[in-house]
Amino acid sequence: MTMTRCVEPEWLDTLPPDDPRAVRSRHDLQRVNRVMGNVTIWERILLKVHARHPVQAENPPPQPTRLPKRIVELGAGDGTLLLRILQRPTLQGPGGTILFVDQQSLVSNDTQSAFHVLGWDVETVQSDVMAWLQQSSLSPPSLGPIDVMIANLFLHHFQTPQLTQMFAAVARHANLFVACEPRRSRAALAGSGLLGLMGCNDVSRHDAVISVRAGFADQELSVLWPASSPYRLEEYAAGLFSHCFVAQRR
After folding, report:
1. At residue 42, what are phi and psi to the nearest 5 degrees?
2. 218: left (phi > 0), else alpha (psi -120 to 50), else beta?
3. Could you list the mean pLDDT of each consecutive 10-residue stretch along the chain, which spans 250 residues?
4. Among the listed residues 99, 97, 96, 94, the one whose alpha carbon sits nearest the alpha carbon of residue 65
5. Which of 80, 115, 154, 237 has the fewest CB atoms lying closer than 10 Å?
6. How far apart are CA 212 and CA 196, in angstroms?
């Protein structure tokens, strides 16, 4: 039986960015992403939707992945997850531009430098994501075309009406939208209660349980995507605790 979705405030969102408990919790979140296997999940998705067709030749050389040239991450946090994704050998390419949107400015100079080494220019926007999307939707030419928008462990913060509004704005700009969220299940809830064994602090332990209860199952995100938009939708469970949603323009 599917658990009823319940969205509640998470402690990390209420703490100042430089609060020691918040800093520790962000480090915990990096470990949680590793346990969930999110980097591998993201790698598989990007390879699937952006891989080149193989060269028709005898013993063809390996072909580089055709990565997007412009990436926007919503609710980006410190940007380190996307960095680890793009550091994967299978995803190394000529680079492009990355725009991080978050209500807090958390992307460090060291992280930006690491992106530059990979050939990516980095821009950051400190803004509420919903406000930014609404403003951008009023003047689409100023935003420009976006190859892919991504959201990692972010959508579960929002109630259904907000998600519907967000998806409507995203569909006006992005050729591809991908989200990786907590899976709402009894197994994931049990797993979230074990974060103390990893040494996670009280903020992380509290928020993990809240995140699972606010997570997604079945086709809950697909039904919120604009029905009239020309997108191919996929929604599925991935790994042990993750739930993925992919919307790709036809």
Report:
1. -65, -40
2. left
3. 88 93 93 86 86 40 59 94 93 88 94 95 94 74 76 96 95 92 94 88 95 96 92 92 93
4. 94
5. 237
6. 16
> What long-range pairs does 219-227 form, CB within 8 A, spacing at least 24?
220/5, 221/155, 221/163, 221/179, 221/181, 221/245, 224/160, 224/163, 224/164, 224/167, 225/167, 225/171, 226/167, 226/168, 226/171
CA distance 71 to 26: 22
**The predicted structure's pLDDT at residue 139:** 54
The model carries a pTM of 0.88
Buried b (16+ CB within 10 A) or exposed e, 220-233: bbbebbeeeeebee
With H, G, I as helix, E, B as strand and everything else as coil, classify residue 185.
coil
Please name every residue paired with 119 in a beta bridge, in sequence order, or none if there are none.
none
Who contacts 213 (Cβ-Cβ below 8 Å, separation ≥6)? 3, 5, 6, 7, 8, 184, 189
Which strand ranges, in their side-by-side order, compose the sheet holding 148-152?
Answer: 121-126, 97-102, 70-74, 148-152, 176-182, 242-249, 231-238
CB 125, CB 132: distance < 8 Å:
yes
The CA-based angle 180-173-91, given to 5 degrees, is: 50
Distinct helix (H) and strand (E) counts, the chain: 10, 7
pLDDT at residue 53, as a whole number: 35
Query: At which residue do the structure tokens 């704005």 appear?
Result: 169
CA dihedral (63, 39, 177, 219) in degrees, to 10, reads: 120
Are 62 and 88 a contacting pair, CB within 8 Å? no
Compute φ and ψ for 48, nearest 5 degrees.
-65, -45
